[in-house]
């Protein structure tokens, strides 16, 4: 069995450590490129949301490289993500590939299938001790990759030597791929943290701060969102991203709770008091949180036609009005052009700068 | 109190239920007029630009009603079938109306009706919550709900018999049944709203075909047919569409000549389920004609008519030359 899986930010690093430890041979799909997107777009339903097309492209490229099994997660809705696997399976079957599709779905669609899927993904044998060690390690790695990205995002606008920062992060990410023990991970982590903390910075007053909210895939996958973190960072903007795979997974698991998300849901209450699928309510809540933190603006990233985010978009505009917070909505799909996006982001940053100079209406002034 | 029900989305499914329930509780029910240009214009102006066309129409109706009634009736119908959802846009509808039009929260009836986890209990609790806004006596609410459910059942039965909702609600002219039929797939708010689908049912009728909608297929049969799919979707409307397609595809009644699938451009569920249906069709040995029509606010009537005419010609041709017809899946 050679398994392939979809890309999502640095998930491949964590899975690349997890599966070999469990004895599953994997064929990671090549990094997302123009070709991936083209392959996916050609076969996927025209109006499906963009992540479906990209992940389909991942699978096809994985199969090209020799994979015979596909690992994918399912869901219970109402977001379309929960049905991706079923559609992708039919499409790949129709292409004539002889591929096993292992869908990790909610047990509500059959405990047997659920347990079978877990068993296959665990390498055919249930060994709690082994599984626990491997999963803990992979989990820590995933956490750390997100931490690294957070460092990169927030440091970019403050450092002179951006290229060295990039190499430092990339090198650390590369080193993570060969980690086999928690102890090695801890060493790498300490070293990287120390290096990043001591990175020479410029002291800057009155940085513009922008928060990123939106759909979990588009807001994190920089090969899809035209690396908006970097774009903003190069314009001298401090970036914070409220979207995280770790929190997403925590929230999906039973008995765990993501404190971050819980807080966002509470904050969203006055505007949207129910889960509408995907990250709709998180986007609204995080926008409120950024407003309360005194951020200068929010960038909302989502795939074109995304149902939960479209609902969130309508509601976020009201949040923006109430807190006097500019929001830039960016819908991304295969037709999004880099130049257009860059222009819009630059214009948005100009607006924020101008507002800063003119003296932004403070929250106290509008009675909050 | 004057309570306004916007004519859109779930309206054609639950109109009699809601109306009877509210009237039994002594409220005055106002519905917005049948969709027209100015109402659509309101929707296009005030709604989110990327939301699907039926939702824009709904928001147009809500905008039309908001100043003329005391309260807007937009219950949050999370689910009306066990284990399934409606669409995220319907889930967020009351919040959208509140935030887009600056309607105060106490003027929107937004109680949650959720049958996903607890089935009937969730249903009853939703209506109890709505009823408690008007009367305190719970027995009276339960009585009203019973009446309403009875009216709803009657309505659904008549729809199943082939009476179109518009005939019942607005007194439109019923169309005489025809020998040959097509199955018109699509969400209830697209098929039954003759203004936004450009009167497609009548157009198809004039071309010589009666229309069967998913509402006219026996729900038990369509649910059973759905078992063929390893995992049915989690949207009730899409499951009804998929189920009735599979039911007709497997039972192959002689009078059904083809399928027309009406999709609104931005529809999330249908973008996936429509693909599944399309691919199921192509896997069939003996294909049935299938037309997929996408509708949004930019759709032109002439284009729609041309495609319908071409489709009907193709159907006629296919059945006239059945023997010489080679299915594309065999030839390639």
Features:
heterodimer, A: 368 residues, alpha/beta, Rossmann fold, 3 domains, four-stranded parallel beta sheet, 14 helices, 8 strands, 54% helix, 11% strand, globular, B: 332 residues, 2 domains, 15 helices
Characterization of this structure:
The complex is a heterodimer of chains A (368) and B (332). Chain A has 368 residues and is of the alpha/beta class. Chain A folds into 3 domains: 124 residues, 3-Layer(aba) Sandwich (Rossmann fold), CATH 3.40.50; 75 residues; 163 residues, Rossmann fold, CATH 3.40.50.11900. Chain A is built from 14 helices and 8 strands. In chain A, the strands form 2 sheets. Chain A has a 4-stranded parallel beta sheet, with helices on both faces. In chain A, helix 1 packs antiparallel against helix 6 and helix 2 packs across helix 3. Chain B is an alpha/beta fold and 332 residues long. Chain B folds into 2 domains: 159 residues, Rossmann fold; 161 residues, 3-Layer(aba) Sandwich (Rossmann fold), CATH 3.40.50. Chain B contains 15 helices and 10 strands. In chain B, strands 2-1-3-5 form a 4-stranded parallel beta sheet, with helices on one face. Chain B has a 4-stranded parallel beta sheet with strand order 8-7-9-10, with helices on both faces. A two-stranded parallel ribbon of chain B has the order 4-6. In chain B, helix 1 links the parallel strand 1 and strand 2. In chain B, helix 1 packs antiparallel against helix 7, helix 11 crosses helix 12 and helix 12 packs parallel to helix 13. The termini of chain B are far apart. The mean pLDDT of chain B is 88.
Q: What sort of overall outline of chain B do the alpha carbons produce when their principal axes are compared?
A: globular
SS summary, helix count of chain A: 14
The geometry of chain A reads as globular
- Average residue pLDDT of chain A: 87
Overall number of strands of chain B? 10
Q: What is the highest CATH level, the class of the largest domain in chain A?
A: Alpha Beta
The order of strands across the largest sheet of chain A is: 2-1-3-4
Low-confidence stretches of chain B: none
Using CB atoms under 8 Å apart, which protein chain pair has the greatest interface? A-B, 48 and 42 residues
Q: SS-based structural class of chain A?
A: alpha/beta
Strand content of chain A: 5-15%
Count of separate DSSP helical elements of chain B: 15
Query: Terminal Cα separation of chain A, in Å?
Result: 58 Å
Q: Using DSSP, what is the number of strands of chain A?
A: 8
Q: Structural class of the secondary elements of chain B? A: alpha/beta
